[in-house]
Design brief:
Elements lengths: L33 H26 L13 H9 L6 E3 L5 H5 L7 H5 L4 H4 L16 H15 L5 E6 L6 H13 L3 E7 L2 E2 L2 E2 L19 E6 L3 H16 L9 E6 L18 H8 L3 H11 L5 H23 L18 H17 L1 H5 L3
Parallel strand pairs: 1-2, 2-3, 3-7, 6-7
Antiparallel strand pairs: 4-5
């Protein structure tokens, strides 16, 4: 894709596939082989099933609070496929698709079950630890990218975040620094229309989020986030610019991926309180999985039998992930090991107190609250 596409007006939204899966911009269709196209679809489908399974586990009390990704599979998988395997991904907490695109180690589920080990293992697939605090990861990924530039590494730092993060000071500080020091960053804003219960139009008076990049001296582009081919193409172009900018270009790019979260903000949220069901149904007509499936069927790359076989494999993989995670034997004393590099006297006191309780009463009695 020509880099000129990154210099569009921020409200000139990039779209490759229409809602029915038809190609609306033939010149923007990425040059991907058939195997990769099917793989993108498989991972998107995996993400939807993963989402459903995790919510089910949470409702059964087998997992903690979970943030749903349904509706955002196109942006997460499309953008991740556009990266090199060793590019760094820093994400908020909803982009499970970025982890799936990197193979999703089974330990990832442990984080959502309350074990910090599930966060630490992400480093093995070049993913920053999951970030719950809104926008805090943005300055860190900029610092990483600056270090990569100084070291001459051919790697890009990609930050995923939601539209709500654009209201945080960390967002502005990170993008300002990235522009001034011209670092190899791609800022990928998953604009799903709601920051918990706050709608997009209450976040900012700006016509688009993409146009905010102008203040920091680099390109901002808006893309249909429910179109995996569009998000792939734009992210790939932004990555190439980050590594090898022309004389008149700066390395960073802000991508605003316009999409919608079909479910609740988290399993602790009730979206019916603040949004209309008619709005949800309207967006579901743009479902990224249905849309991409139509595209692949039209090219004879998918049929019912292939999808059935794919679904069986996905179920097998999910079963394995859950069984391994639930078979993990945790050590409760680990909770004291991730606060400070060296434990404080108060932490040592708490750790020793827990040890004495376990020795005196046993874990079963403590779990039963006796």
């Amino acid at each position: 894709m020509s880099r000129a596409v990154l210099r569009r007006e921020p409200d000139d939204r990039i779209e490759v596939l229409g809602p029915d899966g038809s190609v609306v911009a033939p010149d923007l269709v990425p040059d991907l082989d058939e195997e990769t196209l099917v793989s993108i679809y498989r991972d998107m489908r995996f993400c939807r099933r993963f989402d459903e399974r995790m919510i089910s586990l949470q409702r059964q009390g087998r997992m903690g609070t979970y943030s749903s990704l349904a509706g955002q599979e196109g942006s997460q998988i499309g953008s991740t496929y556009a990266l090199a395997d060793d590019d760094l991904i820093a994400y908020q907490y909803r982009e499970h698709g970025a982890v799936a695109g990197r193979g999703m180690p089974w330990e990832y589920l442990l984080y959502w079950m309350g074990h910090e080990h599930g966060n630490a293992v992400l480093a093995d697939v070049d993913v920053f630890p999951l970030n719950i605090t809104i926008g805090d990861h943005l300055p860190h990924v900029v610092g990483w990218a600056w270090a990569a530039k100084l070291a001459g590494d051919e790697r890009v730092g990609v930050a995923h975040f939601g539209d709500g993060a654009t209201s945080e000071g960390d967002f502005h500080e990170a993008l300002n620094f990235a522009g001034v020091f011209d670092v190899p960053n791609v800022f990928f804003c998953n604009n799903n229309q709601w920051a918990i219960s706050v709608p997009r139009d209450r976040q900012t008076a700006s016509a688009t989020l993409a146009q905010k990049a102008t203040a920091y001296g680099f390109e901002g582009v808006q893309v249909d986030g429910m179109d995996p081919l569009a998000t792939y193409a734009v992210t790939k172009t932004a990555r190439e610019k980050a590594l090898r900018p022309n004389d008149d270009e700066r390395r960073p790019t802000l991508i605003e991926a316009v999409q919608y979260r079909f479910g609740a903000h988290t399993t602790a949220d009730d979206p019916s309180v603040y949004r209309r069901e008619e709005e949800v149904e309207e967006w579901k007509r743009k479902d990224p999985i249905v849309r991409f499936e139509s595209f692949l069927r039209e090219r004879d790359l998918l049929d019912d039998d292939r999808i059935e076989a794919m679904e069986a494999k996905i179920e097998e993989t999910l079963t394995t992930l859950v069984e391994r995670a639930e078979g993990y034997e945790a050590d409760p004393s680990e909770m004291f090991g991730h606060t400070y590099e060296e434990p404080t006297a108060r932490l040592v006191e708490q750790r020793d107190y827990l040890r004495r309780l376990r020795e005196t009463y046993g874990d079963d009695a403590l779990l039963e609250g006796k």
